[in-house]
UniProtKB/TrEMBL annotation, chains A, B:
Keyword check for Cell wall biogenesis/degradation: no
Species annotation: Comamonas serinivorans
Keyword annotations from UniProtKB, A to Z: Oxidoreductase
Name of the molecule in the record: NADP-dependent oxidoreductase
Record-linked Pfam families: ADH_N_2, ADH_zinc_N
Ranges where the Enoyl reductase (ER) domain occurs: 17-333
Tagged with keyword Oxidoreductase: yes
A molecular function GO annotation: oxidoreductase activity, acting on the CH-CH group of donors, NAD or NADP as acceptor
Length: 336, 336
């Protein structure tokens, strides 16, 4: 009998979330039902949106149920199948959650190619949801022309990495914002950013805004926002007329820190457009996005870095580290 | 020799603007040059955007030059013409500014119909720039379907009045926000709003938001913003998924009061779109907008109220009254 280790949401955070909100448990796998597949998870994806699901508040996804394994994207291998379209040995992508195994209907999984050069873990990052997120924000909302200046916060993360490769492919002046000199050097040297600005030495939005002005001398046409707060307040004065802001995340506020937009009159003065979005609501974008992202990886133009925690029991620690920006590129947990 | 009375911008405001920033002066009209027309202004339009032009700061229009007559929309009658397309007696619309007469190139004026039932002053309001502003925000940005709930702040003003008639014509549940029970009663009884909420009794955004919830039980699909600050913070929690915000003005902040958007995460959670806009940048909208607005007036479905100050010397006082919401409907100055 196979024992499945799981991390469940044991309690909801009161303000800041902590490892105490999670609990590791073991449960035997039941027999496989008709139509299901048994999948051994190889990697679990850790993503900022999971923090929102820990709360019991109105959001774009239902709150994570208490006492259940945390939801999350996984890649793995089919070990046993009672579903016609999948066979043992198939590599699959789906929402297996924070556990080592899952038994879900076969149709809940996407079968991955076995004959390409893309590592399995990339399907959770650059050639997965975060990569498609960058693609949608860039193409559906920012819609840049060659020569435009585009800016992204959390530049060295999974979304930022893909954003840089996609924006460079469109001939944009591509600027990142990240925390610390190592991440900025990585963004410039490996991810293809023309320049990356370290926000950490700046005490306030005004100071950061001045630094952004120096590297965006012609202003900014498109901004992809993952962070919010001081960073958004620093970027807004740099936006050119008719600029577009793709609002993807506000990680600065996930634990309750203030993220107010101090000067909304800039939206009026510069006729800016801001749109919040969720990648799952752009189903038609996935196929072209995954194709382009895969091609960029194969061409060596998208070389995402990963931070990999080893073992399910380290998922909470890795998750909170990511929320504080301790990861370097896509944060994963290796489960096998 | 005709003496022309003018109000010039004598100094720029330091924080709050006051009548001291203006100066009334008299100047003789020079001989009319080739291509020009001499126009006797009948009405001067007072509009919130003029407050922004008093400052010497980056905005979507150039600052008002010091020592020159304040710019502004006017309607009047041609008295003398050295321009082929206009003759004495023609009714015209243009930017004559805060003065009793002007001598401008004839091509700067739009000749108005003489055979319709639309009063001359309406071409500065419901069938003019403010009306077209409402049309653009509603049709180009909010794009409502029949049955949608749409909300507008400064509901009883020139823009709000037109917004109500246009939104009702599209089958929307049309809700206004205005200051005081008289304006709200007027909005409901004369302008066609289904309901109008008085913001004045509410001490904070949370209280106003609760009142809005009561009259928008199904949430809000589209919001037309003229005010900002507490009112925007009260509206945002009422927005439904994929809601659209047409950002037209932030009158609450024109004298430096805080207008921060306290909780931008609502844009993400509800995938909202917000767009700042200026009516002059939608040239293709003017003809269909003016046609529809004129038809609504003739059909008695748009009956804008006007607040008319008598005499150029009262323009500054009327202007500051409007910025504080003392006007009732379109604020004009009658010059003849």
């Amino acid at each position: 009998m196979t024992l499945n280790r799981q991390i469940i949401l044991a309690s909801r955070p009161d303000g800041a979330a902590s490892a105490d909100n999670f609990k590791l448990q073991e449960a035997p796998l039941p027999p496989l039902a008709e139509g299901e597949v048994r999948v051994r998870h190889h990697y679990l994806s850790l993503d900022p949106y999971m923090r929102g699901r820990m709360n019991d508040s109105k959001s774009y996804t239902a709150p994570q149920a208490l006492g259940e394994p945390m939801g999350g994207g996984t890649v793995g291998e089919v070990v046993e199948s009672r579903f016609e379209g999948l066979a043992p040995g198939d590599r699959v992508l789906g929402h297996g959650g924070w556990q080592e195994w899952s038994q879900l209907p076969g149709k809940a999984w996407t079968k991955l190619p076995t004959d390409d050069a893309v590592p399995l873990s990339y399907y959770l990052g650059a050639v997965g949801m975060p990569g498609v997120t960058a693609w949608v924000g860039l193409n559906e909302i920012i819609q840049p022309k060659a020569g435009d200046t585009v800016l992204v916060s959390a530049a060295s993360g999974a979304v930022g990495s893909a954003f840089a490769a996609l924006a460079k492919a469109r001939g944009c002046h591509t600027v990142g914002i990240a925390g610390g000199p190592e991440k900025c050097a990585y963004a410039e040297q490996e991810l293809g950013f023309d320049v990356c600005v370290d926000y950490r030495p700046h005490a306030d939005a005004q100071s950061l805004s001045k630094a952004l002005k120096a590297v965006c001398p012609n202003g900014v046409e498109g901004y992809f926002e993952n962070v919010g707060g001081m960073i958004m307040n620093a970027v807004l004065p740099r936006m050119n007329a008719f600029g577009r802001i793709a609002l993807c995340g506000l990680i600065a506020g996930y634990d309750g820190a203030p993220t107010a937009i101090d000067n909304p009159s800039l939206f009026l003065i510069q006729r800016l457009k801001m749109q919040g979005f969720i990648v799952s609501e752009f189903p038609k974008s996935w196929a072209p996005a995954l194709k382009e992202l895969g091609d960029l990886v194969k061409a060596g133009k998208l070389r995402p870095r990963e931070t990999v925690a080893q073992g399910l029991e380290h998922a909470p620690e890795a998750f909170f580290g990511m929320l504080k920006g301790k990861n370097f590129g896509k944060q994963l947990v290796k489960l096998i």
